[in-house]
């Protein structure tokens, strides 16, 4: 079987968020996964007993598929707790497609939950730095992204104002999403971003993602079964993964991420190119991410990301809709954001985006990022029309 | 087998910055390992760096209760990169592309490799 044989074989049939933002006192990450799962099953028109494949990653749990399967009361015949940081859930899409296509399971649940905000805003993470890095007291992970930003600015003349444009666009999108943490707060200006508290130069607090609570669930099944379910299937058209490093000092070139590889693989499997993509959902933990991924995935040339995101080009009404839910910067970021990329992509493909819905959306790209630009996982999802 | 980290620490204790060299592919290796991450060969041999390098990337950390400080990635002339700090200049004035030289200082009871601007010294 060639990898392109996975194209269109499975579809996302259910998506849901749990409560987001600051959840009620006492709610745990398990509760948020349970809530999201119940909602996603309802969305899909499926029963819990239909789930026989389970995919989960967590910063809290070394054995998430065991703990969470017990909580949910499911007995998966196929389980995968691949943890590549925030990109895990996009990687799980590809893994679930393989497992379903191979007949190892029929209906797969991907779940995530975190109460990072309620936990006091600490990044609950088993991450340990190399001793050869830790001695210099970088702040993980923001300093690592700041180093990448510094290099991009040096090599390509990217400015802090251009980085700020990413946060400004995200805030605009969030004003169209009632579930966004910053919904109703009004717009952000470039000057607001530049004058916010400096965290790790050149990144201010407004160049950094939110710290929220939140959970999500995504349900996939075979394309054949999907056609019998009530919602329009979001077909899995292609996926790719790539990992080049773990530690920032080991990243070969701070201005180019492994999304070059993961994106190429996903596009090849899908038989698509960047100009075929209608909406783009990128893991924007920091403003520099969006620039790097737009370049590495082929939406603009290397080094042109700063100019590309300026003048509202990725904001509502711009040329390319990017992070239509408001992103990790303005919608929700509980520590591992990747599952929310998928949820928003599916909503856009179904036409459920409300005030932020993009017309004629048939192909959505999601790009998950894990570690410090370390792991990249890309997937392309599409409507029946895109499937052809 | 001696732990790879021991070779680095022993060097620092004598004021040297040590790195590993692969005899097969001739690449410099840092951080210390038991095999070459480029070609897979082992064992690697220890070498001592000249301590001369170029700033590759830089950031300034702003934390409550402490003065702003620098964290940088430095490309050593022997062909390896490490995280470190550039001292002897305001943290925001550390420039990418500038030449720096090693200084082994004592911090929290242990030797630490930091860098200082070379200026015209080279």
Automatic annotation (TrEMBL), chain A:
Thiolase C-terminal domain mapped to chain residues: 240-383
Entries under CDD domains matching the protein: SCP-x_thiolase
A molecular-function term among this protein's GO annotations: acyltransferase activity, transferring groups other than amino-acyl groups
Protein name listed in UniProt: Thiolase
PANTHER family documented for this protein: ACETYL-COA C-ACETYLTRANSFERASE (PTHR42870), NON-SPECIFIC LIPID-TRANSFER PROTEIN-LIKE 2 (PTHR42870:SF1)
From TrEMBL, chain B:
Pfam families according to UniProt: OB_ChsH2_C, zf-ChsH2
Residue ranges constituting the ChsH2 C-terminal OB-fold domain according to the UniProt record: 46-101
Protein name: DNA-binding protein
UniProt source species: Streptomyces mangrovisoli
Alphabetized Gene3D superfamilies for the sequence: 6.10.30.10
ChsH2 rubredoxin-like zinc ribbon domain sequence ranges: 10-45
């Amino acid at each position: 079987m060639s990898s392109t044989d996975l194209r269109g074989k499975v579809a996302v049939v259910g998506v849901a968020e749990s409560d987001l933002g600051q959840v009620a006192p006492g709610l745990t990450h398990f509760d948020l996964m349970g809530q999201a799962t119940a909602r996603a099953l309802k969305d899909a028109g499926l029963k819990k007993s239909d789930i026989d494949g389970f995919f989960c990653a967590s910063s809290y749990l070394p054995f998430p598929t065991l703990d969470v399967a017990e909580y949910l009361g499911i007995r998966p015949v196929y389980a995968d707790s691949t943890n590549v940081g925030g990109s895990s859930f996009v990687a799980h899409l590809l893994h679930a497609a393989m497992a379903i296509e191979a007949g190892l399971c029929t209906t797969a649940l991907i779940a995530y939950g975190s109460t990072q905000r309620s936990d006091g805003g600490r990044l609950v993470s088993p991450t340990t730095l190399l001793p050869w890095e830790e001695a210099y007291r970088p702040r993980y992970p923001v300093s690592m992204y700041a180093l990448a930003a510094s290099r991009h600015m040096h090599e390509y003349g990217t400015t802090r104002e251009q980085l700020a444009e990413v946060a400004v666009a995200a805030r605009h999108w969030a004003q169209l999403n009632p579930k966004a943490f910053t919904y109703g707060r009004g717009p952000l200006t470039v000057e607001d971003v530049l004058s916010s508290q400096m965290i790790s130069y050149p990144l201010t607090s407004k160049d950094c993602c939110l710290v929220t609570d939140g959970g999500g669930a995504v349900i996939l099944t075979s394309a054949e079964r999907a056609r019998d379910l009530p919602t329009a299937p979001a077909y899995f058209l292609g996926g790719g993964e790539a990992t080049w490093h773990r530690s920032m000092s080991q990243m070969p070139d701070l201005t180019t991420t492994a999304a070059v590889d993961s994106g190429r693989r996903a596009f090849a499997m899908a038989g698509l190119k960047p100009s075929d993509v209608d909406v783009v959902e990128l893991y924007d933990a920091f403003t520099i991410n969006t620039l790097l991924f737009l370049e590495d995935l082929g939406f603009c040339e290397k080094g042109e990301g700063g100019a590309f995101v300026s003048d509202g080009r990725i904001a509502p009404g711009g040329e390319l809709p990017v992070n239509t839910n408001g992103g990790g910067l303005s919608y929700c970021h509980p520590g591992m954001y990747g599952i929310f990329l998928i949820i928003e992509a599916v909503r856009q493909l179904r036409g459920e985006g409300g005030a932020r819905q993009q017309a004629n959306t048939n192909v959505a790209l999601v790009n998950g990022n894990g570690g410090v630009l370390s792991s990249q996982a890309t997937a392309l999802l599409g409507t029946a029309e895109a499937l052809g | 087998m001696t732990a790879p980290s021991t070779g680095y620490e022993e060097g620092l204790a004598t004021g040297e910055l040590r790195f590993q060299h692969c005899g097969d592919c001739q690449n410099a290796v840092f951080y210390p390992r038991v095999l070459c991450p480029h070609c897979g060969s082992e064992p690697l041999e220890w070498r001592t760096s000249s301590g001369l390098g170029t700033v590759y990337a830089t950031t300034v950390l702003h934390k409550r209760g402490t003065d702003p400080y620098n964290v940088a990635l430095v490309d050593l002339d022997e062909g390896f990169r490490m995280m470190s700090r550039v001292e002897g200049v305001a943290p925001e004035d550390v420039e990418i592309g500038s030449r720096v030289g090693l200084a082994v200082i004592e911090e929290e009871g242990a030797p630490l490799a930091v860098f200082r601007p070379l200026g015209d010294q080279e």
